[in-house]
Request: fold
Amino acid sequence: MQRAGAQLNLSPDFTIYLPVGRLTFVTPETFLAELEPVAGQLLDRHLATTKEWFPHELVPYGRGRDFERGYEWSPDDCNIDGAVLPEAVRSALYVNLLTEDNLPYYFRDIERMFSMDGAFGTWNRRWTAEEGRHSIVIRDYLTATRAVDPVQLERARMAQVSGGEVPSPASPLVGVIYVSLQELATRIAHRNTGKLIGDRSGYEVMARVAADENLHYLFYRDLATAAIELDPSEMVIAIEDVVRNFTMPGTGILGFDQHSAAIARAGIYDATILHEQVLVPVIVNHWRVAHLEGLTAAAEQARDALMKRIERLGQLAKNLAARAARRELAVATA
Ligand SMILES: [Fe+2]
Ligand SMILES: [Fe+2]
Reply:
């Protein structure tokens, strides 16, 4: 180990102090021990930055009315400024909410990967409380506006939580990369969903939730930055692993593939967003993976594969966007 007490400048107004310098090798145990003080500082930053908010202040309860026993939902019941909600937006709200409902299993995995003690444990419990607020506000909004079928939603929640299926990263190294990318991707998907709802209250609900996801993203991204500083080689291998296998949370949701396809077609979350708004800004520009020095041979190989994969994904996204544009043109001129 070298460079005891090194500083890591994460932003112009926030510096964290690494307890030790670069490690020769990071194991899950050393990762946790070395990064625990960093997690503590990032937790303090999170608590100083985040603002208290209340779901009940955002939900338009006045638009709601009692549900009669045996009520059968139809898309026309949706009370969003008189408009029928686009199918893709309904898919996004359904998948977003069911993902938030699956919180017990995310809590379990984050506790398993990191720790129930110290700053990691405090962070995980705080994060869980914040995520729980997201499902409260989205569900209340959907129930008051009748935007989705409440029976289908409740049955899907029962199936989802009974199945308990969540992405399970194998180690904290892989886990911190996965949650960094996933929180950012979720922030973007929530914001885009809100923009397409076509309703001021719905927009505000999703913007408020997205603001929380952004702070979650910053916590994990900067924790990963510190981990990369400690052992760039192991972390590059972890980044390559996560990008190769990356899927958004939500597998196990009834009809997930069909909803994901609708969400992609509407531009709420798709390959272009993953490439341009997640992988490039975080891995290429923020973690500056291409510029890391002193990598092991295995890490050099992983970096090579990673950069090629990001490039290929960019090309694929361009091709898909061109195909979608051609399809739209064909429909418009038919
Ligand atoms: Fe959330
Ligand atoms: Fe989050």
